[in-house]
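Data deposition worksheet. Section B asks for the primary sequence of the deposited chain exactly as it was used as input, without tags or linkers unless they were present during the calculation. Section C holds the resulting structure in token form. Section D is free text for depositor observations; keep each observation to a single sentence. Incomplete worksheets are returned to the depositor.
Section A, Depositor: J.P.
Section B:
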Amino acid sequence: MINQNLNIDDLLKQLGERLKEARLNRNENQDLFAQRLGLTRQSYSKMEKGSRQTPIGNWLMASSILGKLGDWQDMLADREDLFAKFEKKSSKRQRAGGSRPRGK
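Section C:
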């Protein structure tokens, strides 16, 4: 899990390190992985170093290749507050049970 006390540059560096580790676990060199991303090796190398200039689309493509695109979707998904959900459900008006007396 990523440490939430890091600044943006530290987070990008950590993402780059994780990307490099994932690439190495696949036994791929930078040239091959860069080619799969449609990048030059130099651009890919900057990505592994955590460059701020790397477009988010490159990170998403790399995540897709690594089978991690769902992690981005989870991160960006709205988190529903369970307490708010319960309150909303509890506060809905309900019909009174039983029968009402009918007028004559």
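Section D:
The chain has six helices and no strands.
The helical segments are 8-25, 30-37, 41-48, 56-65, 69-76, 82-90.
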